[in-house]
Design brief:
Chain A is of the alpha+beta class. Chain A has helices at about 15-25, 30-40, 50-55, 55-60, 65-75, 115-130, 145-150, and strands at about 45-50, 80-85, 90-95, 100-105, 110-115, 135, 140-145. Chain A is globular. Chains A and B meet through β4, α6, β6 and β7 of A and β4, α6, β6 and β7 of B. Chain A binds a DNA duplex through α2 and α5.
Chain lengths: ~160, ~160
Amino acid sequence: MPSASYSAPRVVTGIDEAMAVLRSQGLRVSATRRAALEALLAAEGPVSAEYLASGLGGRVSGCDLPSAYRNLELFERLGMVRHVHIGHGPGLYALVAGDEHAYAVCERCGELSRLSAAQLEAIRSEVRSANGFEAHFSHFPILGLCAACAGKPAG
Amino acid sequence: MPSASYSAPRVVTGIDEAMAVLRSQGLRVSATRRAALEALLAAEGPVSAEYLASGLGGRVSGCDLPSAYRNLELFERLGMVRHVHIGHGPGLYALVAGDEHAYAVCERCGELSRLSAAQLEAIRSEVRSANGFEAHFSHFPILGLCAACAGKPAG
DNA sequence: GATCTAGATGAAACCGGCTTGCAATTGCGA
DNA sequence: TCGCAATTGCAAGCCGGTTTCATCTAGATC
């Protein structure tokens, strides 16, 4: 599920900055959009559209699910938000952060491991020399076997 | 969507070999399973469960969709089949082949590029040294920008 | 401040991919 | 050949996500 349109990342750190981005594109700053952005800023990690629409479980103000999807897609197009797919559940959305990172998931035990920007760059450089692709690994996790499971025979 | 259970690859090249694998596990060789395996052998590349259930569009005998999914999942557990997710559509299933490979998809123009086993091994070795993971890239494609799109400014 | 209008919202229905429940069927060992 | 558990097909259901459309509202214009 590659995003329909890829856009340059745009790091926003506060609600006013985010709303300025909207206005600079001639888009409206509605109560719903403000709520969604505030929820994203308040969230501690990537959250599902449903959780966001519920106002992080009631902690902040929410909106209906289709609107959440519409706005998340918009924010993503503007480069303020990215979404990841980890596991079988829904996609998880988060504001674009300064430090890029990615996840690796063990297919056998489910262990989740985070790769730093430096580690990613080494891998990316290997892909670049293989086929010229400028890869990022932020949308899908890297799948495989963690060190512990790789040592054991296949179940 | 990592597979629920990872299993060692088991390359089968013919229908008899595949049925022997089933029998060796105490599983039944039903007409439906034989049909599914013959369709997979006849398919020219990864196919969706729906296309498989239709008997590759009527060319061979098919079965109902839930049975197709059940059997594909079984074959995957036995290591004979793997499935990939490329683009937004359904997962695509194929018999495990001798030559491992993976895909890279450009997020902007959609270009699909195949990575050889040797190229993959170089990338995998980089991941291994980063976090000890034994990565494979056969379930999700590697996403990024192809050489051509990476050169142009973000749209 | 009142008016106007395109852009945004919410409610409901819809969609595709996949799974589950269950009665009917069938492979295959005895 | 018989018996029964594994397997099947059908129908319904589930879940993540999208579309439709009438209503509402941000914000430009007067």
